[in-house]
Amino acid sequence: MYEMLSQDHAKQAQILRKVYEDAVSFLEQRPSRTVAPFYQEQTLRHLPQQGLGAEAARKLFSEDYLPWIPASSGGRYFGYVIGGVTPAALAGDWYTSLYDQNAFGHPGTVDRQIEAETIQLVRDLLDLPKDFFGVFVSGATTSAMTAMVCARQWAAAQTGHSASEEGLYGLERPDVASGLTHGANYKALSMAGIGRKVHALPLLPGREAVDPAALEAYLADRDPQKPLIYIANMGTASSGDHDDLNAIAELKKKYNFWLHVDGAFGGMMACSPKYAGLFNGLAEADSITMDTHKWLNVPYDGAVILCRHPDLQYQSFTNALSASGAVPNQASHYHMTPEGSRRLRALPVWFTLLAYGKEGYADLCERNVSLCEYYGQKVEASPYFRLLNQVRGNVVCFTLNLPEDRIAQSDIQEILDKLQAEGVTYSNMGSFYGKPALRVCLTNWMTEPADVDAAFASMENCSKAVFDRIRP
Ligand SMILES: Cc1ncc(COP(=O)(O)O)c(C=O)c1O
Description:
binds pyridoxal-5'-phosphate
């Protein structure tokens, strides 16, 4: 054995103890860390001829990189849609690396049981029926791509073709329609060979949700023989809005289309008794995407693809040479996903869902939404800002309280750069009806009212000079 590897082997317990100490100190110091320090990229180092050993590598990492690691898992990081890490999820994730299982999901293996059981926990969380088959993938983009591949298999089957066996050549393209859908879904459509062309349906006034009457008119007007994939949005990135899934589910009874729901983060709303009634229609979907690394507060990376057409999924993703038939009862999980070898991504989800249960997650969701409403009230009370959306989820979208034509994207960026430099909180640029906007997204189990107070005070502080400079 290579000498340095042999020495590390002998010191394994010591190495892990140091990792544990670092972990505790990181978690203790996280609330006072600069939330998102700017990192100046450095020259890339080369591979050493002789190995340094784990302790020297750890030391290099702590000196060169650790100070610049953003506290994106902490309670005041409000950028993008970034979840935190619950204590149980972190424990589960460490065990995932410790046990290092390849989650092929073969019959007779414990990884298959863990993944299937975790999918059941996810179905229970969202009150979904048992006929949704589910597997874990790396993120919502891959989940959506998996869904679109199943949808194309469904579309091709309507004219007697198997897209997975014969490809898409010569087939008529299915229609794809949506409201304001995330870029990830265009990417998924492109990867699935369907293409990015999406018919954009009219939105309800001042909202990012599709007008159900416009959807019905569109459905009534089109050739019913032509397959249609409809992508419903449960949580839009800029304003956290959601399509009326109950109305869409009613339309699905009348018209034939594949309903995919992008619930990458907004899917979480269905776990709260307070909001679940808005999303009963979720149960009528053909496929659902939900990230675990967002509002579920599980470490990167992970998402589920829930699909009620496992036969189409098997035909599309099996590792076998040919699969024109139905899914065999005992199909291994790797026959149902884009990957071959797979990390046991289910385990941290299993830990956190069992640890906090339906009530714990409903509480997390409702607390984040009510803190968003609180942030929204502060926006409304401030002379510097005005709200762009009515807070309906975990996103607040707002802008300077000035005429629209005076606010340039560079003004918003200047505020965000100042905010990042101040280090109390982090937000990124949003866009509402094409206009640059400030936005905050709350997805962390740790966020408390005091974090919102501190973050909002910093936002106001960083906006005043820009506001004064550009006001009429
Ligand atoms: C609504 C929505 N869909 C899809 C995605 C893509 O998710 P991922 O980065 O996990 O692939 C995101 C990411 O923010 C999102 O907000």
